[in-house]
Amino acid sequence: MIKIPCHCGNIIESDLEPVVDPGDDPDIYTKIIEGDFMTFHCPQCGTDLKTETALRLTDSGRGIDISFIPELDRGEYLSGRMDLPGKRVAIGYRELVEKIVLAGENLDDRLIEIIKFNLLEKADSNLIKIYFSHRENDDLIFHIHGLKPDQIGLSRIPGTVYTKLLPQLDDLLGNDDIKLFTEGPYVSVSRIYLED
Prior knowledge:
This protein is an alpha+beta fold and 196 residues long. Helix content is 33%, strand content 27%. The protein is built from 8 helices and 11 strands. It has helices spanning 27-34, 74-78, 93-105, 109-123, 159-165, 169-173, 176-182, 190-193, and strands at 2-5, 11-14, 19-20, 39-41, 48-50, 55-59, 64-69, 88-91, 129-136, 139-145, 152-157. Strand 4 and strand 5 form a beta hairpin. The longest helix has 15 residues, at 109-123. The radius of gyration is 18 Å and the shape is globular.
């Protein structure tokens, strides 16, 4: 159980546990993707509060084991002062959504991060963030944040790019530049692009 302080002074007691098994409640995946997960309603003032709290999602049936931490804890985790038990780590809500969508699409997150790395190399800017959004027909759709204020760009990568790179994944993972963001439980190109 977590306690969430509301702006009105009320403390909301949630039944959200530190370890969540989405297999017990498949609607959790929909709530995560739609942004309703970790949103709580204050019965005193009627405000809906969106919070981020550290937790672990484990669903052995789908092979999901994600330790989630809020964006505010990024520095502590990357500095090695925080040890997390999950097979994967998601920092911030957008990364959690991305990991869940990738698992649902049965896509290897390491290869998706390599594709994002190539897109970021072409953009040549550390202000841009890229997230996998969904698969449309056979195309991989990425949302690009930071190109213009208050706008989200879109990049459509043919699914054949993923298919051609998949047999090369082991060789790609041996590349020193790629190891920087694919080794360990935190598989994210943000490890190198958000540090500057």
